[in-house]
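# step 3/5: fold
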Amino acid sequence: MARIKILLADDHTLFCNLLRELLEPEYEVVGCVNNGRDLLTVAKTLQPDVLLVDIAMPALNGLDAGRRLKQENPHMKLIYLTMNNNVEYAREALQAGASGFVLKNAQSSQLLRAIHAALRGMSYVAPEIREAMSQIFIRDPKAVDRPQHLTDRQREVLQMLAEGRTLHEISDLLKISYRTVRFHKVRIMEELGTSKNADLVKYAIKHGIISSV
């Protein structure tokens, strides 16, 4: 019987290697990528059963990459493994279609439980995050269902702006014209009601588009 295939996405090579050692006795680790754009390409090629993804990755964050992959292949299981215990990040992850949200400082048994749960069609959220989300929901039921106002392309551009890339660099990376990038920036600022680059960074951190660490 073929083993379950897992693709890792984390921009720390050493951590990927440690994950591989942990998982390979039970699963087939088919690769490790270090940014969200490579994750899109490699996942489409290898078609793993499980994606184990960090949120904070360059070029395209794990939340947006995971959301796109789940839209294209709903059967692919998505689990986030992150240093960020931000409840907003967990909310974004679950809205992206994730089956699991595990913190990197957790015991390895938590990660294995999350994978087992995902493969059974269930979900697993780190206990401390689950409790915090419950408290937020009790105080404000609408707080866990705020709509997204930015398109996928706008979120891509926003991430690169927040990472400090110039409009010309973004144009080259996304293979779109400088004028189009500038247009996206203007629309993003209009949507967020700001004219300050610092506010773009704050929004990106709050919504898990980039990491604060």
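# step 4/5: annotate
DSSP finds ten helices and six strands in the chain.
# step 5/5: archive (pending)
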